[in-house]
Write a structure and sequence with these properties.
The complex is a heterodimer of chains A (about 260) and B (about 280). Chain A has about 260 residues and is mainly β. Chain A is built from two helices and twelve strands. In chain A, strands 1, 2, 3, 4, 5, 6, 7, 8, 9, 10, 11 and 12 form a twelve-stranded mixed β-sheet that branches. Chain A is globular and about 60 Å long. Chain A starts with a helix and ends in a 15-residue tail after the last strand. Chain B has about 280 residues and is mainly beta. In chain B, a hairpin with a 2-residue loop joins strand 7 (about 110-125) and strand 8. Chain B is globular, with a radius of gyration of 26 Å. The chains are: A mainly beta (about 260), B mainly beta (about 280). At the A-B interface, strand 1, strand 2, strand 3 and strand 6 of A face strand 7, strand 8, strand 16 and strand 18 of B.
Chain lengths: ~260, ~280
């Protein structure tokens, strides 16, 4: 009998607790403003789009990233290209340094938002006839100082700079007669050549640079651009780098600033 | 009979031999006594397959799925001779102990993985089956993981070292059984490099619980709690103060398609990568 009473008391307590919880956890309406501020938390952002006969599926890490890193001797796409073999690679970058150690603490880091992979397929009615065209890797936003020593480039790049005499100079792959394929960055003065470029400051007071990406493609593709970002140039087949938005040259001397770890 | 009796007597004599006298330990000696236990496990002949699907759905309803994962491993002629090893080891001076998971040394690359999975993306009102990812001859050589208590903040500190070779990694939009349509990466190599960017047959230490710790935790900023993963600056107190360098090489990238010539993009490499600091905060 005692145990029966105990059991009944337990049920009563549970029922009371439920009633209490029900009363205290009543849903409250959100105002329009509160509702607009409410967001779920996600690890990735996913997009499916189509453009120019191609299907694109984009997987972006929904994150803010701060980075200090050094990449050396990057040679991507080493194959023979008859029209202009250049240095023998689509992209030949001797040094790419995210951050610098000769400035302020803030300049040590580069800030990146939403790094992504985007896969490209030729339009098809079903999976059985789908054709793999390639992929690209990029950042939806990047800001900070990036040291660069670019030997040659397949891509679309635009950097503004200030020459030693104070005049404005411009590096622009649009000046290349082959559209930027295995371009050595040479130009006719007054201009800024790849050899004179020691790095870039990405982004400005209005926001980060929004169009950095590198693609691997079997054929040329026009990639879609994010809302508010100008349409990029079509990527050519092979390895292709796009970077034109909000880039200012760190210098015109070709000197790459150091990027040593803290304490060195 | 005499021989047997002699053997028994010898055994008894051995068992009954006087034990060495026990000696008391002083505090210093006692504090240096550590267990030598550990766990090893092997995946000799491992194989799995099935129709299981794992989906990740974002807050806005789009989703990414991976399904029909299959994996198998071939091994060296001596089963269980080169296992994964889990040990609790002493941390660097002043730091907490470390759970250390050492991967098989796999010196002769006998342990080889074959794997495949299908995947797809549902977003913007469209479901796109992306086809299959097929991995052939994936070989891990040494390396491993570490886990410990962070030197600062909450969460879990970890270290990771990787030396990996993949015979072939192919993206096959028409499924794992149709390799005639694919983007193929052949000979993918990731590992430690020397000062000249040449592989030195060691794992690339991406993080180390003492000399360059990684951490996973939840940090709160003005927008609320955020999942955080980071790798701290190299710490000269526990190492050289320089981030280890690793290299990434792909021997060949090509596209194959029925009725079309193969597009060969040759080899690609990043001779040296140093991650000096990395901080990833997931958004709300």
């Amino acid at each position: 009998m005692n145990s029966f009473h105990s059991l009944r008391s337990l049920w009563l307590c549970a029922a009371l607790a439920c009633c209490t919880l029900t009363a205290s956890a009543q849903m409250q309406p959100l105002s329009e403003e509160e509702l607009s501020n409410t967001r779920g938390q996600g690890l990735v952002a996913l997009t499916n789009t189509s453009l120019g006969g191609y299907d694109f599926s984009k997987i972006a890490l929904d994150a803010d990233i701060s980075l200090s890193a050094n990449l050396r001797n990057m040679r991507l796409g080493e194959y023979t290209y008859g029209a202009r073999n250049g240095s023998g690679a689509d992209i030949d970058i001797g040094l790419m340094q995210f951050g610098r150690s000769d400035g302020t603490d803030a300049q040590r880091l580069v800030h990146i938002s939403n790094p992504y992979f985007e896969f490209v397929y030729k339009n098809a009615a079903d999976g059985a006839s789908r054709e793999a065209v390639g992929m690209r890797f990029g950042f939806e936003g990047i800001s900070g100082d990036i040291g660069l020593k670019v030997n040659s480039l397949s891509g679309s790049m635009r950097v503004t700079g200030v020459a030693a005499d104070g005049s404005a100079v411009l590096l622009d792959s649009h000046t290349d007669t082959l559209g930027g394929k295995r371009w050595d960055g040479a130009c006719t003065a007054p201009c800024l050549s790849l050899a004179q470029l020691g790095g870039v400051t990405a982004g400005d007071a209005a926001g980060p640079s929004r169009d950095f990406w590198i693609s691997v493609l079997k054929t040329g593709v026009q990639f879609p651009s994010a809302a508010g970002v100008p349409a990029s140039d079509a990527a050519q087949a092979g390895i292709w780098m796009n970077w034109r938005d909000k880039l200012q040259a760190l210098n015109t001397s070709g000197l790459v600033p150091p990027n040593l770890p803290k304490g060195r | 009979m005499t021989a047997v009796r002699a053997a028994v007597l010898a055994l008894l004599a051995a068992v009954c031999a006087p034990a060495l006298a026990m000696e008391p330990l002083n505090d210093a000696a006692l504090s240096s006594v550590r267990g030598r236990d550990g766990v090893s496990f092997d995946l000799n002949g491992f194989a799995m397959s099935g129709d299981a699907r794992v989906s990740y759905t974002t807050p806005v309803g789009s989703s990414l799925y991976v399904e029909k994962f299959s994996a198998s491993r071939s091994d060296n002629p001596l089963p269980f001779s080169d296992p994964y090893k889990l040990d609790i080891v002493a941390g660097a001076p002043g730091l907490a102990d470390v759970i250390n998971i050492a991967f098989p040394l796999n010196t002769n690359a006998d342990q080889r993985w074959q794997a495949a999975y299908d995947w797809g993306v549902t977003a913007d009102g469209v479901t796109r089956e992306q086809g299959s990812v097929v991995v052939k001859d994936l070989v891990f050589t040494g390396g491993g993981l570490q886990f410990s208590t962070p030197q600062v903040n909450d969460g879990v500190a970890f270290g990771a070292a990787l030396r990996m070779d993949i015979g072939q990694l192919s993206f096959q939009p028409r499924g794992r059984t149709d390799a005639t349509e694919a983007m193929v990466l052949s000979g993918v190599h990731i590992g430690g490099v020397d000062g000249n960017g040449v592989f030195n047959n060691t794992p690339w230490m991406l993080a180390n619980v003492a000399s360059q710790p990684a951490v996973i935790n939840a940090l709160t900023d003005e927008t609320g709690p955020r999942l955080h993963i980071g790798i701290d600056w190299p710490d000269a107190r526990y190492g050289s103060g320089v981030a280890p360098a690793g290299g990434i090489v792909v021997d060949n990238i090509s596209f194959v398609s029925p009725g079309q010539p193969t597009v060969d993009l040759g080899s690609s490499r990043i001779g040296s990568v140093q991650i000096q600091y990395l901080d990833i905060k997931f958004k709300h």
